[in-house]
Amino acid sequence: MPRKKELISGLGAKYGGTLRKRYSRIFRTLKAARECPSCSSMKLRREASGIWKCKSCGYTVAGGAFDLSQARSR
Length: 74
Ligand SMILES: [Zn+2]
Description:
The chain is α+β, with helices and mostly antiparallel strands.
């Protein structure tokens, strides 16, 4: 019996459903353009989880893991 194959298919089901739906919503907010609080250009990008960096002036700011405004509203 190919036991290993069953394990892999089980892992695939783990990432399906609700998590995938949630990820697509987060992915959209990640891709959205953001205004830099320092130079007000729309080049603010997510550098790492919770870290946002402006590609224009190099300004780095800590925020939510997936959305900049998430940390403030909490
Ligand atoms: Zn900037």
